[in-house]
Putative zinc-finger (Streptomyces qinglanensis), 413 residues
Amino acid sequence: MSRPPARPGPEQPAGPEPSGRAPATGTADTPPGPDEHRVLTSLLGAWALAACSAAETAAVETHLTDCAPCAEEALRLRDAVGLLHSEDSLDLDPMLRSRVLEGCLDRRPARIPMPAWAAPYDAETARLDALLRDMAEEEWRAPVQLRWFDGERQAARETTVAGVLGHLLAVDGLVATGIGLPDPLPSGALPTGPGAGPQARTEVYWALDDAGHRAQAARERWREQSHALIRDVSFLAAEDAGPGGEHAAPDRRVDYGGFTLPLRDAFLDRAFECWLHAGDVAQAVDYPYEPPGPAHLNQLVDLAARQLPGAIAARRRSGLAPPVRGLATAGAPGRTLHLEIEGSGGGDWYIPLDSPGTRASPERTVAHIALDDLEFCQLAAGHVPPLDAAAGQDGDPQAIQDVLYATASLSRL
């Protein structure tokens, strides 16, 4: 970097204006003195960054032709500068951690491998933890709007970043207790009965004295619980490994208070919610947050698509959707909707419309919906009103409406 000319001392008359010539560096016959060498060496970093003036650049490059140690240092610094990409985003690829783990496991397989269906939860909890790690105290109190669809309309609840983490801790506790881990909620405060699901547990946690005051302690408890979940479910899956070595889901279901999910789907459900709420937190603190990588995103989309037949049937039982016309025979092919999800996490799903017990049949497709993968996930999270989803639609309008509303109904606090 260029330096200003020295200010003349009280007894030194001001000299002429600088001529712009490079500082003297000596020649082959008169090598530079120690002071000149020190000055030129100090400019090597700026030279490597192309931050020197023209005169300084000429002086440094002249010096490099005569000084082997400086020439070696200059090459090292220039190579280091080549690794800097200041124009790129500093945020890591969401799948970087998974690729590094896969590379390590290819070289030395884990004695107890993690099942593939638990990998999205592992990745999303690690990403959220990285976001929380350096969060300032005031950011933990930043307001966060949690949104979902209650079956008929959108609902919202305001909390804080600390409250979001408490919500995740409390609901992850359902999966924890399902595999024999301790419940993060005190035993005397646990809700009971059919309504003892995610929302009731969250309200209990928020009512605790430390719900929003000891944020770092809550983060440590949540991260410790997520690590324990990954560890213990890997042991359970290994015990249930099939004869071909595939790690199947243990034959367990997680009780959500009113409905249950297979263990593998419960892990995908928790990964989905962790990602969506991490996005809520990132938005509250004005930080960019990327979606999951394609392989994990596809698993989350698949989970929502597989839940749609049950969600459609539940809406009919509640009177929120019209009944099926005609008789639906279990196991027989029935009316079908083709759900096309575009994007890196997408694919094609055929949704039985008449009953979860009927069989989807491409030949009996009565409607087609095309949605972007992220838009579909936002709809399943209740962040987008069903009729506002940017969907390509063709066919039976009632079937399309049933599926869009059922997708939004998958959401909850």
Notes: Residues 1-30, 85-90 have pLDDT under 50 and may be disordered. The radius of gyration is 31 Å. The chain has three domains: 34-82, 113-290, 295-409.
